[in-house]
Structures are given as C-alpha cells and as structure tokens.
Write a structure and sequence with these properties.
This protein is of the alpha/beta class. It is 65% helix and 10% strand. 36% of the residues are buried.
Length: 581
C-alpha cells in the first residue's frame, strides 16, 4: 500500500526527485573523494615534507567540500519541497474523499479516526518521504561507493567490513521486526485518545451535569497511559539502535587499526591509506545507520498508508451515476415522490422504514410526526440522498434521485438539520453558505423571516459578528434561527426542516411559520416536528409509527380518525396544561 500510494503521489514531482538524485550523487561522490585526498596529503605531502603538495591538495579538498555543501543543501531543499507537496496533496485527497462519503461511511469510520488519518497519518507519510529522499537515496550510494573506495586503499581488510555490515544489518533487522506491531497499535491507540477527547469536549456540559469529571478524567488517563506505554516500548527499541551502531562502529574501527597497523608495519599499507580506510568504514556504517533511520519509519508509515488507503479506497454508497439525468429546466418545480420506500441500516436486523409512499407538491407543506425512533429523520435524509433507499424509489420531479448528479440534487434542496450547526466565521459567511452571491439586503430579509433580525441587529458589527465553531457563542434558539435563515438565503425548490423549531418558544415558532408561508409559497416544504402545534396548518400530515405510515391527512382529519395522531396531540395538550398549572 505504501509503495502504491507514494508512486501516485510522487508522480507530479518527478523533476524535483531527479534533482534530488543528481544532487545527492554529486554530494556523495564529493564526500567519498575527501578521505582519498586526505590520504594523499598524508602520504605524498606530510610524510615527504612536500608543502606544495599539501597546499595543492588542501585547496582541492576545500573546493570539493564546498561542492558537497552546496549539493547537499540543494538536495535537502528539493526533498523538503517534494515531501511537503506530497503531504499537501494527500490531505486534499483524503478530505475530498471524506466529503463524498454518505452517512453510512462516516459512521463506519467515525470522526475521530478520520481526523487522525488526515493529520497524523499523513504527517507520517510526509516525514518518511523527506527522510527517504534525504537519507535513503544517499545511503546505498555511500555504502557501495565506500566499499569500492575502501578496497582501492587496501583489499586485505575486506573481512572486517563484511562482518561489521552483517552484524549491523542483523541487529537492526530484529529491532525493526519488533517495531511493526507496536506502530500499528500506536496509531489505533491514538485514534482512541482522539475519540475520547472529542467526546469529552463535545459533551462537557453533560459530564459536568452528572458530576462525571473524575470518571471521565480516569477514562482518558487510562487510554493516554496505554498510548504512552506503547510509545515507551517503541522508544526503548529505538534507543537500542544507536548504541548498536556505535558499538559496531567502534569495534570495527579498533579492528581496522589493529590489523591495519600490522599491515603498515609489514609495509603492505601506508598510514594515509589506513586513515582513509577508517573514514570509509565509518561512512559505510553511517550509511547503514541512515538507511536504518528511514527503515524505522517505514513500518509506521506503512501502517499509516494502510489507514489512508482504507479511506481513499472506500467508495461512497451515494455515487454519481455514469450518465446522470439532467432535469428539464421547464419542468423543475420540486415535486417529491416516495414510492414503496424501505430503508435498513447496515447490520440491522430489521428495516427502519417499511413501504413508505407519499407525495409532496410545490406550494404545499407536508409534516411528518411520530414517536421517538419512528424513522422521521431517516425518511427526510433519503430525499437529498444523504443515504440511499434499500427498497423502493425516491423521485424529484419524476426523476429517481439516484439518476441525478448529487450536485444537481443538492443545489435544489436546503435542509435544516435536527442539530443546527454553524461554521467558524461570521453571521454573513454562514448565511451565504448556500448562496455566496447573496446581498446584505437578502441576508437581512432571511434573518427577518427566521425571527433572527432582532438579536443580530443588536450586535455592534451586525452581519460581521464572529461565530465560533459549531455556533457555541450563540444560544440554541439563535443557532436554530440562523440555520433557518441560511436555508432561506439559498432559495431552493425544496425545504427540509428536521425538527428545526424545537428550540423556539411557542410564540416565536408561530411568528416564524407565519413569516415562512409567503417566502416558501412556490416551494415544496417538508417538516419533521415533535410539537403538534407546529404542524396544525400543514396541507398534509404523515403519521409514522415504527417506520410505517399509519395516518395521512390534515390535522382535523387525523384528530377525527387516527388514534395514533390523536394520542400524540392529547399528550401534548396534557403536558401544556400541566405546565400552565
């Protein structure tokens, strides 16, 4: 997965990668040449007292060192640019794929892990790419070149290099083998920490209301401690690597000096060559250490690549048809038809909706009522195709929504969700979410209809008043009215209100519904509501019970002939009477 992912991500940056390879080759050749020059200075200059040779070769060494420095800086710059670009592109790909997911895929992964995969996992790939371009490219050149240059100095000491390299590779291979499962566990545990932290931040009021601070702190502490424990195990293994490398390097240097001194004494080797041989041995072992540093990142990057690949290879169940139907502009009115609709959640034993059939026409309001868990919200989500039916058909203007391009469908529908959500920005930026070209006058008109004009006008900065993420700096009722205003600014053909008036008091609810009528006169309005008072004026009311339609008609008709609806109405009248008493 890692190789396949990087192959695709690196393809646009082939030029930069070639530049890295060339510059690394130049820098490595220069670094391999320096010990030979140093050996020549010792043997041909110092040993013979030839000052001119020392100055000449010293100047060459200085020039070679300068070339090496420039090439290394250039290679590092190109590698960093490539790695940062790969990280940027990968984050965009993951983000775009997540945006295409239906609620089924979002529920399958969960918000916490999707955030981790688009941040921490991408960062692991990015870091590994940088280290690979900087170190892994240079390591084999340095290793092979170092062996060749060392053999040029003296062939007799080759067994020392073979033993040192073999021992080092074996020891490091065992360490990396132990790291792979730990890296996988570390990423999963990081997901768990993010999930708990997200839950506790989102539900902080509930935690405080039930005085669960101590228990939630303990739950986070346990998960965090487990993550720390895994990190310590990884750290312990990584801590072994440098001592192993240094031990092998020092023992090898001692061996070279011991046996090399004997060869120098026997006249089989010169002092300068012995010095160069030690330098080459260190370069060879350092190249292995550089490769090892990258190798230690590969297991974790591989795990991250698998997690990212799982997101990128998951196709949304809500797919764009191969040949989408383009609605005829002359017949775009907003009629919604549900024909024998069934819906079952993945893994559920029974369907949530059974054989639902109804029609909602432009210029009318259709209300959906029912008890908790009766499928009201699920039914509403099928219309804009946030999920696909598992049986039957949902049509808009006679066209199956599965035959429409999702963007064409969504541009005609405005939904106000059960849990109103605002984005960080300003009042104006939130209202223009569905219509970026809306004027300030249009925004104020939408606020007036949504009964939000009064509190927005009290802000000193009006439409430019800042809104925190999620709208946490406004009350629930204000947040709900702003979301309704946002839907009105979009001017869609179909309005879907999912229990969007629940946070409003009865008088505000009545004023808002009265103001909505002239604005939505030409549109199809479908309302999910808990309060009967919200739907009494609807043109038709659909009563759901355990996912089935058990009543359809006006308020008066249902009160007279539908026991389920009448029971809901009577219970709310009783509750209201109790509150008044």
């Amino acid at each position: 997965m890692l190789t396949r992912l990087l192959r695709r991500q690196l393809r646009p940056y082939t030029g930069l990668i070639v530049g890295v390879l060339v510059l690394q080759l130049v820098a490595t050749i220069a670094s391999l040449w320096l010990p030979t020059l140093n050996a020549d200075i010792i043997d041909d200059g110092i040993a013979r007292g030839d000052t001119a040779t020392i100055w000449r070769l010293g100047g060459v060494m200085l020039a070679v060192s300068a070339v090496q420095a420039v090439a290394q800086v250039g290679a590092t710059w190109a590698a960093a640019r490539t790695a940062m670009s790969v990280g940027r592109d990968l984050r965009v790909r993951v983000f775009d794929r997540v945006l295409s997911f239906s609620s089924r895929e979002l529920g399958q992964f969960g918000a916490a892990t999707l955030i981790t995969r688009n941040t921490n996992d991408v960062q692991q790939i990015q870091q590994m790419t940088f280290m690979a371009l900087v170190m892994l490219v240079a390591a084999p050149i340095t290793g092979v070149g170092g062996v060749y240059m060392a053999m040029r100095q003296d062939v007799g000491l080759w067994p020392l290099i073979a033993v040192a390299v073999g021992v080092l590779l074996l020891a490091i291979g065992l360490v990396i083998w132990r790291m792979v499962p730990l890296f996988r566990a570390q990423q999963k545990q990081l997901d768990a920490v993010n999930r708990i932290l997200r839950e506790q931040i989102s539900g902080v009021r509930v935690v405080r209301a039930f005085t669960r601070e101590r228990e939630e702190t303990e739950r986070f502490r346990r998960t965090n401690t487990e993550l720390t424990g895994i990190g310590l195990k990884v750290g312990d293994l990584m801590a072994l690597m440098f001592p192993i490398v240094m031990l092998v390097m020092n023992l090898s240097s001692v061996g070279v000096i011991w046996f090399g001194a004997q060869r120098v004494e026997a006249g089989q080797m010169e002092v300068g060559a012995l010095t160069a041989y030690i330098s080459y041995l260190i370069q060879i072992l350092m190249s292995i250490m550089m490769a090892t540093m990258v190798a230690t990142m590969i297991p974790r990057a591989s795990v991250s690549a698998e997690r990212i690949g799982a997101v990128l290879e998951t196709d949304s169940t809500v797919v764009t048809p191969e040949h989408p139907v383009r609605p005829d502009a002359d017949h775009v009115v907003g009629t919604v038809d549900l024909e024998a609709v069934d819906f079952t959640y993945p893994g559920a034993e029974a369907p949530v909706l059974h054989d639902i059939s109804l029609r909602a026409r432009p210029g009318t309001t259709t209300a959906i009522v029912g008890g908790t868990g009766s499928g009201k919200t699920t039914l509403l989500r099928l219309i804009p195709r946030l999920a696909d039916v598992t049986g039957g058909t949902v049509r808009v203007d006679g066209i199956d929504v599965r035959d429409l391009a999702p963007r064409d469908l969504w541009s005609r529908v405005a939904i106000v969700p059960q849990r109103p959500y605002l984005f960080s920005g300003t009042v104006a930026s939130n209202l223009r979410f569905g219509n970026p070209d809306a004027t300030d006058d249009e925004l104020w008109e939408a606020l007036r209809v949504a009964q939000a004009e009064d509190f927005v006008s009290r802000y000193a900065d009006g439409l430019e008043h800042p809104i925190a993420q999620g709208g946490t700096n406004v009350s629930g009722g204000q947040r709900q009215r702003l979301c309704i205003a946002r839907a009105l600014v979009a001017r869609p053909d179909i309005y879907l209100f999912d229990d969007s008036f629940s946070a409003l008091d009865v008088s505000t609810d009545a004023r808002l519904r009265a103001a909505l009528r002239p604005v939505t006169r030409a549109a199809t309005v479908i309302v999910v509501a808990q309060r009967v008072s919200t739907v009494v004026d609807a043109d038709q009311i659909v009563v759901l019970d355990e996912g089935r339609v058990v009543g359809l008609g006006t308020h008066d008709e249902l009160m007279a002939g539908n026991e389920t609806y009448a029971e809901i109405a009577r219970s709310q009248e009783f509750a209201a009477a109790g509150e008044v008493a």
